[in-house]
Amino acid sequence: MIEYFSLTCPHCADFHAQTLPTIKEKYVSTGKVRLILRDFPLDGVALMAAMLARCVPPERYSGFVDVLFRSMNQWARDRDPRAGLMRIGRLGGVDEKTAEACLGSEALQRHVVQSRIEASSRYRIESTPSFVINGRTVAGALPIEEFERLLGPLVKTP
Questions:
Q1: Model-level pTM?
Q2: Cα(48)–Cα(46) distance, integer angstroms
Q3: Could you say which of 1, 50, 92, 112 is the most buried, measured as most Cβ atoms within 10 Å of its Cβ?
């Protein structure tokens, strides 16, 4: 299951707070489903946040994305969202020098933007959150019951 999200998307934040923990518990942690998180920034602030999230070690990425979603109302609405992100980065263990290097990296910016372009053309992603489940694109922060309906047939053993 691939999730495409924007770090300034309130529906994505709701999904991460409400539905994703159950999916992780029932499907991901049991090894029934592999979850892949992919950036689909909807604006410049989300792009900065996605780039900052790439500063953390890969094993901490998912947790850092959750922190960014939980604190989105603070940093995304800050008069200076970059400064707000830098504060969150420091709390997440990203020193200022590393954060500045990530946020200033044109190569990283191209990588994140390319991920969005590829999602649009390959899977027809147009909004966030969107998911690709076994090759099928599904849009929206669906309730857990809908995810169980979509994931259930894929993980049942004969």
A1: 0.92
A2: 5
A3: 50
